[in-house]
Design brief:
Order of helices and strands: HHEEEEEE
Mean pLDDT: 95
Radius of gyration: 15 Å
Distance between the termini: 20 Å
Number of strands: 6
Helix content: 10-25%
Strand content: 35-45%
Largest sheet: 4 strands, antiparallel
């Protein structure tokens, strides 16, 4: 995600190695919207407090749900040309709970859906 949002071309991310389905489409369209408005993101994102909520390996497509704390407090939205920070709402959550659904593909596990829970962590 960091590479996708930082690179206006989106070519260096190779996000399809980690995400598929709605998660991949949503990330690519969100990053494109930011890039089209002259914005990139710098810094880092962290996942902490990860816990497996459920696992189903007996179905046709093995899947799992993971709960994590997504920390974007060190991720900065900046103007792509000047690299100056873009003002964001002060009351936005920068550490929040997210549920991720993963499926096992032949190449490995892929995130197929991310659901922010709207709760700080």
């Amino acid at each position: 995600m960091e590479k996708l949002y930082a690179d206006r071309t989106g070519k260096s991310a190779h996000l399809d190695q980690y995400a598929a389905s709605a998660a991949l489409k949503n990330a690519e369209s969100d990053a494109k919207r930011a890039h089209d408005s002259g914005r990139v993101y710098t810094g880092s994102v962290a996942l902490t407090e990860q816990a497996v909520v459920s696992v189903n390996v007996s179905g046709k497509v093995p899947n799992a749900t993971v709960s994590s704390c997504l920390d974007i407090s060190n991720w900065r939205r900046v103007d792509a040309e000047t690299k100056k920070p873009v003002t964001l709402p002060e009351n936005r959550l920068t550490k929040y709970r997210i549920l991720s659904t993963l499926e096992r593909y032949p190449e490995g596990w892929r995130v197929i859906r991310d659901e922010p829970q709207g709760k700080s962590c």
